Amino acid sequence: MRPCSDEEFQWIESELAELVSGEDPNWKGNFVSHLLPSQFQVCAKILHRITAKYENIDNPLSDQELAILRIPPCTELRSFVESRRDSEEAPRIRWKALAELLNVPFQPEICHEWFRASLSDPTCWPRFLYGPDEGNLDYEELSEVLSILRPFAGEQKCFLRFATIPFLGTEKPILFAGALDEVVDFLKENKYQFSPEYLWPSDRNWCLCSDYDLMFTIIGGPQELISALLGSDTLEALQVTQQTRIDSYAPMPKRPRDAHESR
Question: Which of 59, 82, 153, 210 could cross-link 195 (Cys pair, CB 3.0–4.6 Å)?
Answer without folding.
Answer: 210
